[in-house]
């Protein structure tokens, strides 16, 4: 994975790279700590649609350029929208819809948090299936300090993934939470040295991409639905039957018997 670091002098919309069964989405406004602008959300949604439409892509990795993962959604854009100075790009619920779209991707997703994460970006990362952070990073959810009651999808993700106690602590105190504590409460799955982050994310992506795509997609959907208290039993039965009859299942069983790594084709 290319590491643009802080060398990028321009502030641009997210950069999307697709290669080797992986989609890499890099937030690319380092001077603004990767603040998310309304146009960025449109670019992200387009990227997610592209990923879901391409069966060759097996994993998505989300990261950022510079010292911060993201400072969250541009609050000035929110104020301008409320004041009528700026048109909505995608509507007033655009941010929530973007994060929900990320969560619903058929493929597994990894957030490689190259630095601290704030506000709505905490939910963007939480919508990913796995998160690796760096030593020295912190999380701040400032909703209570800004007089904001968060949207439904974000509250659901916080509660279902972290539990009621952790969700209340992060939302109601608005205090910074350090990497070690984020690991303890389950927000992070791993903490790496900054210089090791991308290698660890690449290794995890390779592990995910090597597994059977149909089974991975089915398992991810069932787990997410169960966490939300909305498991579709009929859909689960259908995907189980499809996977049981798939070439990938046959390959997996054969490889297991032959004590070798399976090679899955996604069908």
Tag the structure with descriptive keywords.
267 residues, alpha/beta, 2-enoyl-CoA Hydratase, Chain A, domain 1, 6-stranded mixed beta sheet, 4-stranded mixed beta sheet, 12 helices, 46% helix, globular, disordered N terminus
Quick recap of the structure?
The protein is built from twelve helices and ten strands.
CATH homologous superfamily grouping of the largest domain = 2-enoyl-CoA Hydratase, Chain A, domain 1
SSE pattern, N- to C-terminal? EEHEEHHEEHEEHHHEHEHHHH
Q: List the uncertain runs.
A: 1-8, 78-84
Strands, total number:
10
Instruction: Please identify, by name, the CATH architecture of the largest domain.
Output: Alpha-Beta Complex
Q: What percent of residues adopt helix (DSSP H or I)?
A: 40-55%
> How far do the termini sit from each other?
27 Å
Count of discrete structural domains = 2
Spatial strand sequence of the major β-sheet:
1-2-3-5-7-10
SS element count, helices: 12
| Dominant shape | globular
Strand content: 15-25%
Highest-level CATH class of the largest domain: Alpha Beta
Chart the SSEs and their pairings.
Elements: E1 12-19, E2 22-28, H1 38-53, E3 59-64, E4 68-70, H2 75-82, H3 94-103, E5 109-112, E6 116-118, H4 120-126, E7 130-134, E8 138-140, H5 143-146, H6 152-162, H7 164-173, E9 177-178, H8 179-184, E10 190-192, H9 197-209, H10 213-227, H11 233-244, H12 247-257
Parallel strand pairs: 2-3, 3-5, 4-6, 5-7, 6-8, 7-10
Antiparallel strand pairs: 1-2, 8-9
Helix pairs in contact: 1-3, 3-4, 6-7, 10-11
């Amino acid at each position: 994975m290319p590491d643009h670091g802080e060398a990028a002098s321009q502030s641009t919309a997210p950069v999307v790279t697709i290669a080797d069964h992986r989609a890499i989405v890099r937030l690319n406004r380092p001077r603004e700590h990767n603040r998310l602008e309304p146009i960025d959300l449109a670019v992200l949604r387009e990227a997610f649609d592209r990923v879901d439409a391409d069966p060759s892509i097996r994993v998505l990795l989300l990261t950022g350029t510079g010292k911060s993962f993201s400072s969250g959604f541009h609050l000035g854009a929110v104020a301008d929208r409320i004041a009528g100075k700026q048109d909505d790009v995608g509507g007033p619920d655009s941010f929530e819809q973007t994060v929900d779209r990320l969560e619903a991707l058929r493929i597994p997703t990894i957030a490689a948090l190259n630095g601290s994460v704030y506000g709505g970006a905490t939910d963007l990362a939480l919508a990913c299936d796995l998160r690796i952070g760096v030593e020295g990073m912190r999380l701040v959810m400032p909703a209570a300090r800004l007089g904001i009651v968060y949207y439904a999808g974000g509250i659901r993700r916080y509660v279902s993934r972290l539990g009621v106690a952790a969700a209340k602590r992060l939302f109601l105190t608005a205090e910074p939470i350090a990497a070690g504590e984020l690991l303890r409460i389950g927000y992070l799955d791993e903490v790496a040295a900054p210089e090791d982050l991308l290698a660890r994310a690449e290794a995890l992506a390779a592990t995910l991409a090597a597994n059977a795509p149909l089974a991975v997609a089915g398992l991810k959907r069932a787990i997410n639905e169960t966490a939300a208290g909305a498991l579709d039993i009929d859909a689960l039965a259908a995907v189980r039957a499809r996977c049981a009859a798939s070439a990938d299942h046959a390959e997996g069983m054969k490889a297991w018997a032959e004590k070798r790594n399976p090679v899955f084709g996604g069908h």
